Protein backbone atom coordinates (compact mmCIF):
# COMPACT_ATOMS: atom_id res chain seq x y z
CA UNK A 1 0.00 0.00 0.00
CA UNK A 2 1.16 3.52 -0.79
CA UNK A 3 0.40 5.32 2.44
CA UNK A 4 0.26 9.09 2.77
CA UNK A 5 -0.14 11.74 5.40
CA UNK A 6 -2.20 14.18 3.37
CA UNK A 7 -3.83 14.20 0.00
CA UNK A 8 -4.30 17.71 -1.30
CA UNK A 9 -6.70 18.94 -3.95
CA UNK A 10 -5.60 22.31 -5.21
CA UNK A 11 -8.07 24.33 -7.26
CA UNK A 12 -9.44 21.18 -8.92
CA UNK A 13 -11.65 22.25 -11.80
CA UNK A 14 -13.48 20.27 -14.47
CA UNK A 15 -15.33 21.73 -17.43
CA UNK A 16 -17.66 19.94 -19.82
CA UNK A 17 -18.20 21.68 -23.14
CA UNK A 18 -17.42 25.05 -21.61
CA UNK A 19 -19.63 24.64 -18.52
CA UNK A 20 -17.97 24.19 -15.12
CA UNK A 21 -19.07 21.00 -13.38
CA UNK A 22 -16.56 21.62 -10.59
CA UNK A 23 -14.81 24.91 -9.84
CA UNK A 24 -11.66 25.40 -7.78
CA UNK A 25 -12.04 22.62 -5.23
CA UNK A 26 -9.45 23.02 -2.45
CA UNK A 27 -9.38 20.20 0.07
CA UNK A 28 -6.84 18.53 2.30
CA UNK A 29 -7.62 14.94 3.24
CA UNK A 30 -5.69 13.54 6.18
CA UNK A 31 -4.84 9.87 6.50
CA UNK A 32 -7.60 7.97 8.31
CA UNK A 33 -10.29 10.54 7.62
CA UNK A 34 -13.78 9.78 6.37
CA UNK A 35 -14.80 12.64 4.08
CA UNK A 36 -18.31 12.97 2.66
CA UNK A 37 -18.97 14.98 -0.48
CA UNK A 38 -22.55 16.15 -0.05
CA UNK A 39 -24.89 18.12 -2.26
CA UNK A 40 -27.93 18.00 -4.53
CA UNK A 41 -28.01 16.22 -7.87
CA UNK A 42 -25.70 17.79 -10.42
CA UNK A 43 -23.62 19.76 -7.90
CA UNK A 44 -20.37 18.11 -9.00
CA UNK A 45 -19.88 15.35 -6.42
CA UNK A 46 -19.21 12.54 -8.89
CA UNK A 47 -17.06 14.83 -10.99
CA UNK A 48 -14.88 15.53 -7.94
CA UNK A 49 -14.62 11.84 -7.14
CA UNK A 50 -13.80 10.89 -10.72
CA UNK A 51 -11.10 13.57 -10.90
CA UNK A 52 -9.61 12.15 -7.72
CA UNK A 53 -9.83 8.60 -9.05
CA UNK A 54 -8.15 9.50 -12.33
CA UNK A 55 -11.21 8.62 -14.41
CA UNK A 56 -11.58 12.26 -15.53
CA UNK A 57 -8.70 14.56 -16.44
CA UNK A 58 -8.72 17.96 -14.70
CA UNK A 59 -9.37 21.14 -16.67
CA UNK A 60 -7.32 23.07 -14.11
CA UNK A 61 -5.73 22.57 -10.69
CA UNK A 62 -3.67 19.72 -9.28
CA UNK A 63 -3.81 16.80 -6.83
CA UNK A 64 -0.95 15.95 -4.50
CA UNK A 65 -0.17 12.92 -2.34
CA UNK A 66 2.24 14.40 0.20
CA UNK A 67 4.88 15.92 -2.10
CA UNK A 68 4.05 13.88 -5.19
CA UNK A 69 1.86 15.14 -7.98
CA UNK A 70 -0.92 12.66 -8.60
CA UNK A 71 -3.28 14.07 -11.21
CA UNK A 72 -0.83 13.27 -13.99
CA UNK A 73 -0.84 9.56 -13.05
CA UNK A 74 -3.30 7.14 -14.70
CA UNK A 75 -6.06 5.72 -12.46
CA UNK A 76 -4.42 2.31 -12.05
CA UNK A 77 -1.23 3.87 -10.71
CA UNK A 78 -2.93 5.83 -7.96
CA UNK A 79 -3.63 2.73 -5.86
CA UNK A 80 -7.19 3.73 -4.93
CA UNK A 81 -10.14 1.40 -4.37
CA UNK A 82 -13.47 2.29 -5.92
CA UNK A 83 -17.04 1.34 -5.02
CA UNK A 84 -19.84 2.47 -7.34
CA UNK A 85 -23.57 2.69 -7.02
CA UNK A 86 -24.17 -0.04 -9.60
CA UNK A 87 -21.60 -2.43 -8.00
CA UNK A 88 -19.83 -2.99 -11.37
CA UNK A 89 -19.12 -6.65 -10.58
CA UNK A 90 -18.06 -9.16 -13.24
CA UNK A 91 -21.26 -11.19 -13.75
CA UNK A 92 -19.46 -14.34 -14.96
CA UNK A 93 -17.02 -14.49 -12.05
CA UNK A 94 -17.74 -15.94 -8.60
CA UNK A 95 -17.66 -13.76 -5.51
CA UNK A 96 -14.19 -15.11 -4.74
CA UNK A 97 -12.88 -14.34 -8.23
CA UNK A 98 -14.45 -10.87 -8.20
CA UNK A 99 -12.81 -10.08 -4.90
CA UNK A 100 -9.40 -11.48 -5.86
CA UNK A 101 -9.41 -9.76 -9.26
CA UNK A 102 -7.31 -6.78 -8.20
CA UNK A 103 -4.76 -9.00 -6.52
CA UNK A 104 -4.45 -11.20 -9.61
CA UNK A 105 -3.92 -8.11 -11.76
CA UNK A 106 -1.14 -7.07 -9.42
CA UNK A 107 0.54 -10.50 -9.62
CA UNK A 108 0.17 -11.26 -5.91
CA UNK A 109 1.47 -14.82 -5.19
CA UNK A 110 -1.16 -17.57 -4.97
CA UNK A 111 -1.05 -18.31 -1.25
CA UNK A 112 -1.18 -14.65 -0.28
CA UNK A 113 -3.94 -14.04 -2.81
CA UNK A 114 -6.03 -16.81 -1.27
CA UNK A 115 -5.42 -15.59 2.27
CA UNK A 116 -6.25 -11.96 1.55
CA UNK A 117 -9.31 -12.83 -0.52
CA UNK A 118 -10.70 -15.01 2.27
CA UNK A 119 -10.03 -12.32 4.83
CA UNK A 120 -11.85 -9.69 2.73
CA UNK A 121 -14.83 -12.00 2.21
CA UNK A 122 -14.95 -12.70 5.94
CA UNK A 123 -14.87 -8.98 6.63
CA UNK A 124 -18.10 -8.42 4.70
CA UNK A 125 -19.72 -11.64 6.01
CA UNK A 126 -20.04 -13.44 2.69
CA UNK A 127 -18.22 -16.70 3.54
CA UNK A 128 -21.28 -18.79 2.68
CA UNK A 129 -21.63 -17.13 -0.70
CA UNK A 130 -18.00 -17.21 -1.84
CA UNK A 131 -18.58 -19.54 -4.80
CA UNK A 132 -21.81 -17.95 -6.04
CA UNK A 133 -22.14 -15.65 -9.04
CA UNK A 134 -23.23 -12.01 -8.48
CA UNK A 135 -26.62 -12.75 -10.12
CA UNK A 136 -27.37 -15.20 -7.31
CA UNK A 137 -26.94 -12.52 -4.62
CA UNK A 138 -29.19 -9.80 -3.24
CA UNK A 139 -28.39 -6.12 -3.87
CA UNK A 140 -26.91 -5.70 -0.41
CA UNK A 141 -24.74 -8.79 -0.82
CA UNK A 142 -23.52 -7.56 -4.20
CA UNK A 143 -22.61 -4.22 -2.69
CA UNK A 144 -20.65 -6.09 -0.02
CA UNK A 145 -18.72 -7.92 -2.74
CA UNK A 146 -17.93 -4.55 -4.34
CA UNK A 147 -16.64 -3.27 -1.00
CA UNK A 148 -14.53 -6.38 -0.39
CA UNK A 149 -13.09 -6.06 -3.88
CA UNK A 150 -12.14 -2.45 -3.21
CA UNK A 151 -10.50 -3.00 0.19
CA UNK A 152 -8.69 -6.27 -0.62
CA UNK A 153 -5.94 -4.37 -2.43
CA UNK A 154 -5.35 -2.37 0.79
CA UNK A 155 -5.83 0.91 -1.05
CA UNK A 156 -4.39 4.14 0.30
CA UNK A 157 -7.76 5.75 -0.40
CA UNK A 158 -11.23 4.27 -0.89
CA UNK A 159 -13.61 6.21 -3.12
CA UNK A 160 -17.32 5.46 -2.87
CA UNK A 161 -19.96 6.96 -5.15
CA UNK A 162 -23.46 6.65 -3.66
CA UNK A 163 -22.76 3.00 -2.80
CA UNK A 164 -26.02 2.48 -0.91
CA UNK A 165 -28.50 4.18 -3.20
CA UNK A 166 -29.80 0.95 -4.77
CA UNK A 167 -30.56 -0.66 -1.42
CA UNK A 168 -33.77 -0.61 0.59
CA UNK A 169 -34.05 1.68 3.62
CA UNK A 170 -33.32 -0.97 6.26
CA UNK A 171 -30.29 -2.39 4.47
CA UNK A 172 -29.01 1.11 3.84
CA UNK A 173 -28.93 1.78 7.56
CA UNK A 174 -27.15 -1.50 8.26
CA UNK A 175 -24.56 -0.97 5.54
CA UNK A 176 -23.92 2.57 6.75
CA UNK A 177 -22.76 1.21 10.07
CA UNK A 178 -20.80 -1.58 8.37
CA UNK A 179 -18.94 0.79 6.07
CA UNK A 180 -18.09 3.12 8.93
CA UNK A 181 -16.90 0.13 10.97
CA UNK A 182 -14.76 -1.21 8.12
CA UNK A 183 -13.27 2.23 7.68
CA UNK A 184 -12.26 2.26 11.35
CA UNK A 185 -11.15 -1.36 11.67
CA UNK A 186 -8.99 -1.28 8.55
CA UNK A 187 -7.69 2.24 9.16
CA UNK A 188 -8.89 3.33 5.73
CA UNK A 189 -9.06 6.83 4.32
CA UNK A 190 -12.42 7.23 2.63
CA UNK A 191 -14.07 9.74 0.33
CA UNK A 192 -17.78 9.08 0.11
CA UNK A 193 -20.23 10.74 -2.27
CA UNK A 194 -23.86 11.09 -1.21
CA UNK A 195 -26.86 13.39 -1.59
CA UNK A 196 -28.30 12.08 1.68
CA UNK A 197 -27.55 14.50 4.50
CA UNK A 198 -28.24 11.95 7.23
CA UNK A 199 -25.86 9.49 5.65
CA UNK A 200 -23.15 12.14 5.40
CA UNK A 201 -23.68 13.44 8.94
CA UNK A 202 -23.70 10.00 10.53
CA UNK A 203 -20.71 8.54 8.68
CA UNK A 204 -18.21 11.28 7.99
CA UNK A 205 -15.53 12.99 10.07
CA UNK A 206 -15.81 16.00 7.78
CA UNK A 207 -18.33 17.07 5.18
CA UNK A 208 -17.69 18.99 2.00
CA UNK A 209 -20.96 20.61 0.93
CA UNK A 210 -21.12 21.43 -2.79
CA UNK A 211 -23.55 23.48 -4.83
CA UNK A 212 -23.28 24.22 -8.55
CA UNK A 213 -19.72 22.91 -8.60
CA UNK A 214 -18.53 25.12 -5.76
CA UNK A 215 -17.68 24.35 -2.17
CA UNK A 216 -20.16 25.99 0.19
CA UNK A 217 -18.75 24.70 3.45
CA UNK A 218 -16.23 22.24 4.83
CA UNK A 219 -16.68 21.16 8.43
CA UNK A 220 -17.42 18.48 10.99
CA UNK A 221 -20.97 17.09 11.07
CA UNK A 222 -21.69 19.22 14.11
CA UNK A 223 -20.37 22.42 12.54
CA UNK A 224 -22.32 21.92 9.34
CA UNK A 225 -25.46 20.84 11.18
CA UNK A 226 -25.58 23.64 13.72
CA UNK A 227 -23.82 26.41 11.80
CA UNK A 228 -24.51 26.11 8.08
CA UNK A 229 -22.40 28.68 6.24
CA UNK A 230 -25.21 30.04 4.08
CA UNK A 231 -28.89 29.53 3.43
CA UNK A 232 -28.25 26.97 0.68
CA UNK A 233 -26.37 24.74 3.08
CA UNK A 234 -29.11 25.34 5.67
CA UNK A 235 -31.75 24.41 3.14
CA UNK A 236 -29.92 21.22 2.25
CA UNK A 237 -29.36 20.31 5.90
CA UNK A 238 -32.95 20.25 7.05
CA UNK A 239 -33.79 23.89 7.77
CA UNK A 240 -37.10 23.49 5.97
CA UNK A 241 -38.38 26.86 7.07
CA UNK A 242 -36.58 29.57 5.11
CA UNK A 243 -38.55 32.70 5.82
CA UNK A 244 -37.77 35.99 4.08
CA UNK A 245 -37.96 39.27 5.94
CA UNK A 246 -35.93 42.30 7.02
CA UNK A 247 -33.13 42.42 9.52
CA UNK A 248 -32.87 44.80 12.44
CA UNK A 249 -30.59 44.55 15.48
CA UNK A 250 -30.43 40.76 15.89
CA UNK A 251 -34.10 40.38 15.03
CA UNK A 252 -35.93 39.71 11.82
CA UNK A 253 -39.29 40.94 10.71
CA UNK A 254 -40.54 37.83 8.92
CA UNK A 255 -43.12 38.52 6.21
CA UNK A 256 -46.51 37.16 7.22
CA UNK A 257 -45.61 36.43 10.83
CA UNK A 258 -46.75 39.70 12.34
CA UNK A 259 -44.19 39.90 15.15
CA UNK A 260 -40.49 40.75 15.24
CA UNK A 261 -38.45 37.65 16.00
CA UNK A 262 -35.08 37.36 17.73
CA UNK A 263 -32.48 35.09 16.15
CA UNK A 264 -28.78 34.42 15.65
CA UNK A 265 -27.27 36.23 12.66
CA UNK A 266 -24.61 34.05 11.01
CA UNK A 267 -22.64 37.13 10.01
CA UNK A 268 -22.91 40.88 10.06
CA UNK A 269 -26.07 42.07 8.40
CA UNK A 270 -26.94 45.71 7.83
CA UNK A 271 -30.02 47.04 9.65
CA UNK A 272 -32.93 47.20 7.23
CA UNK A 273 -31.33 44.71 4.80
CA UNK A 274 -33.37 41.82 3.36
CA UNK A 275 -32.62 38.61 5.27
CA UNK A 276 -33.77 35.01 5.54
CA UNK A 277 -34.65 33.30 8.81
CA UNK A 278 -33.88 29.56 8.89
CA UNK A 279 -35.26 27.10 11.41
CA UNK A 280 -35.76 23.33 11.45
CA UNK A 281 -39.33 22.01 11.83
CA UNK A 282 -38.39 20.20 15.05
CA UNK A 283 -36.95 23.40 16.56
CA UNK A 284 -40.19 25.36 16.40
CA UNK A 285 -41.86 24.93 19.80
CA UNK A 286 -45.57 24.80 20.48
CA UNK A 287 -47.11 27.23 22.92
CA UNK A 288 -46.58 30.96 23.41
CA UNK A 289 -46.11 33.27 20.40
CA UNK A 290 -47.98 33.31 17.11
CA UNK A 291 -51.20 31.48 16.32
CA UNK A 292 -51.22 29.17 13.32
CA UNK A 293 -53.77 26.80 11.80
CA UNK A 294 -52.68 23.26 10.96
CA UNK A 295 -53.43 22.40 7.34
CA UNK A 296 -51.67 19.09 6.81
CA UNK A 297 -50.53 16.56 9.42
CA UNK A 298 -48.41 13.50 8.55
CA UNK A 299 -47.89 10.61 10.91
CA UNK A 300 -44.20 9.76 11.47
CA UNK A 301 -44.38 7.37 14.41
CA UNK A 302 -43.25 9.26 17.47
CA UNK A 303 -43.78 12.58 15.75
CA UNK A 304 -46.22 14.43 13.55
CA UNK A 305 -44.90 16.51 10.67
CA UNK A 306 -47.33 19.34 10.04
CA UNK A 307 -47.79 22.22 7.68
CA UNK A 308 -49.45 25.22 9.31
CA UNK A 309 -50.35 28.73 8.22
CA UNK A 310 -50.44 32.09 9.98
CA UNK A 311 -53.38 34.49 9.59
CA UNK A 312 -51.26 36.41 7.05
CA UNK A 313 -50.62 33.33 4.92
CA UNK A 314 -47.08 32.38 5.98
CA UNK A 315 -46.55 28.60 5.78
CA UNK A 316 -44.54 26.90 8.52
CA UNK A 317 -43.27 23.32 8.73
CA UNK A 318 -43.53 21.84 12.22
CA UNK A 319 -42.44 18.56 13.74
CA UNK A 320 -43.73 17.66 17.17
CA UNK A 321 -44.74 14.73 19.37
CA UNK A 322 -48.08 16.48 19.91
CA UNK A 323 -50.89 14.77 17.97
CA UNK A 324 -51.80 17.65 15.66
CA UNK A 325 -54.65 17.34 13.16
CA UNK A 326 -55.84 19.54 10.28
CA UNK A 327 -57.91 22.47 11.55
CA UNK A 328 -56.15 22.64 14.95
CA UNK A 329 -55.14 26.07 16.05
CA UNK A 330 -51.85 26.18 17.98
CA UNK A 331 -49.38 28.86 19.00
CA UNK A 332 -45.73 28.56 17.96
CA UNK A 333 -42.48 30.10 19.20
CA UNK A 334 -39.02 30.29 17.63
CA UNK A 335 -36.20 29.78 20.15
CA UNK A 336 -33.73 32.60 19.23
CA UNK A 337 -30.68 30.29 19.41
CA UNK A 338 -32.29 27.90 16.92
CA UNK A 339 -33.32 30.60 14.45
CA UNK A 340 -30.42 31.50 12.18
CA UNK A 341 -30.53 34.71 10.19
CA UNK A 342 -28.77 34.85 6.81
CA UNK A 343 -28.33 37.83 4.52
CA UNK A 344 -30.74 37.44 1.60
CA UNK A 345 -28.03 38.02 -0.99
CA UNK A 346 -26.00 35.21 0.48
CA UNK A 347 -24.86 33.62 -2.78
CA UNK A 348 -21.38 32.37 -3.63
CA UNK A 349 -19.53 35.35 -5.12
CA UNK A 350 -19.57 34.19 -8.76
CA UNK A 351 -23.29 33.47 -8.77
CA UNK A 352 -24.13 36.80 -7.22
CA UNK A 353 -22.09 38.59 -9.89
N1 LIG B 1 -19.66 13.66 -19.28
C1 LIG B 1 -20.29 14.81 -19.10
N2 LIG B 1 -20.56 15.64 -20.12
C2 LIG B 1 -21.19 16.84 -19.94
N3 LIG B 1 -21.63 17.27 -18.75
C3 LIG B 1 -21.40 16.50 -17.67
C4 LIG B 1 -20.74 15.22 -17.79
N4 LIG B 1 -20.66 14.68 -16.55
C5 LIG B 1 -21.25 15.56 -15.71
N5 LIG B 1 -21.70 16.64 -16.36
C6 LIG B 1 -22.38 17.81 -15.78
O1 LIG B 1 -21.61 18.29 -14.70
C7 LIG B 1 -22.41 18.66 -13.59
C8 LIG B 1 -21.99 17.89 -12.34
O2 LIG B 1 -22.28 16.50 -12.52
P1 LIG B 1 -21.96 15.39 -11.43
O3 LIG B 1 -22.28 14.08 -12.01
O4 LIG B 1 -20.60 15.61 -10.90
O5 LIG B 1 -22.99 15.77 -10.31
P2 LIG B 1 -23.41 14.94 -9.00
O6 LIG B 1 -23.41 15.93 -7.90
O7 LIG B 1 -22.57 13.75 -8.84
O8 LIG B 1 -24.89 14.55 -9.37
P3 LIG B 1 -25.71 13.18 -9.10
O9 LIG B 1 -25.93 13.13 -7.63
O10 LIG B 1 -26.97 13.42 -9.87
O11 LIG B 1 -24.88 12.08 -9.64
C9 LIG B 1 -23.84 18.40 -14.01
O12 LIG B 1 -24.39 19.61 -14.43
C10 LIG B 1 -23.71 17.42 -15.15
O13 LIG B 1 -24.77 17.57 -16.06
Automatic annotation (TrEMBL):
Keywords: ATP-binding, Nucleotide-binding, Transport. It comes from the Bacteria. Pfam families: ABC_tran, TOBE_2. Residues 7-237 form the ABC transporter domain. InterPro entries: AAA+_ATPase, ABC_SmlMolc_Importer, ABC_transporter-like_ATP-bd, ABC_transporter-like_CS, Mo/tungstate-bd_C_term_dom, P-loop_NTPase, Transp-assoc_OB_typ2. One of its GO terms (molecular function) is ATP binding. This is ABC transporter ATP-binding protein. It comes from Actinoplanes ianthinogenes.
Amino acid sequence: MTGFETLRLDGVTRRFAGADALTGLDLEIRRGEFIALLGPSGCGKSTALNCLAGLLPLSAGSIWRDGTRLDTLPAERRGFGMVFQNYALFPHLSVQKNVSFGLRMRGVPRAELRRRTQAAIRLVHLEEHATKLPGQLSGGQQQRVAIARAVVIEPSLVLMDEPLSNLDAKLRLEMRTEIRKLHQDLGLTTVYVTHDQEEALSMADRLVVLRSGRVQQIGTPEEVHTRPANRHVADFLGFRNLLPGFFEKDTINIKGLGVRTAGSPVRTIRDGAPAVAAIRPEDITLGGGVEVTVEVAEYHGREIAAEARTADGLTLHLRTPQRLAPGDKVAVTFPPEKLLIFPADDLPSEEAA
